[in-house]
Amino acid sequence: MDAATQPYPSQIDCGWLVSDEVGHLAMLITAGEGPIPALALEGSRLPLDDLGGLVDALEICSEVEFVVDVPNPASFIDLARRGVFMFDWTDVHRTEAGQRGIYELVAKPRTPRGVVDLPPVLTQAISGLEVSGRFSDLGAIDPSRYWRDLRA
């Protein structure tokens, strides 16, 4: 591991931020084992365990549509109410044979928050972590499609 790289947060349920082609914001929750791009773990970026609190501090701006049932949905709802699309590494709840290797859309805001509406510290956390398409049209995100250097 490079000295300037944060360690992978193994067995820690945390999230990382990405934006889509129209500048909407999503948080991908790792469930302690989902892959994270090495770029998101660079030492110059905000530690992942700080991101949830900063997103949670954003003003509530939206109602939420729940897409997939998950255990303990309260935290997903809380963050989605702040205009953030919420994806979860649901493989943690599947047998090895049933794993899909994707972050699934769990909750979506009716009024998405744009990257332009974020404080600079969160804008920096997203830099270089963009996906093609719109979160509102994506049911899942396969990180291997967008980033080659993944950590898990």
List keywords for this structure.
6-stranded mixed beta sheet, 8 strands, alpha+beta
Helical stretch tally: 4
State the major sheet. Answer: 6 strands, mixed
Strand content: 15-25%
> In terms of per-residue confidence, which ranges show pLDDT below 50 for 5 or more consecutive residues?
none
The geometry reads as globular
Describe the structure.
The protein has 152 residues and is an alpha+beta fold. It has one domain. The protein has helices at residues 48-56, 74-80, 120-126, 143-146; strands spanning 15-19, 25-29, 36-37, 64-66, 85-88, 103-109, 140-141, 150-151. The strands form two sheets. Strands 1, 2, 4, 5, 6 and 7 form a six-stranded mixed sheet that branches. The chain has a two-stranded antiparallel ribbon with strand order 3-8. Strand 1 and strand 2 (25-29) form a beta hairpin. The longest helix has 9 residues, at 48-56. The radius of gyration is 14 Å and the shape is globular. The two termini are 13 Å apart. The mean pLDDT is 88.
List the helices and strands and how they pair.
Layout: E1 15-19, E2 25-29, E3 36-37, H1 48-56, E4 64-66, H2 74-80, E5 85-88, E6 103-109, H3 120-126, E7 140-141, H4 143-146, E8 150-151
Parallel strand pairs: 2-5
Antiparallel strand pairs: 1-2, 3-8, 4-6, 5-6, 6-7
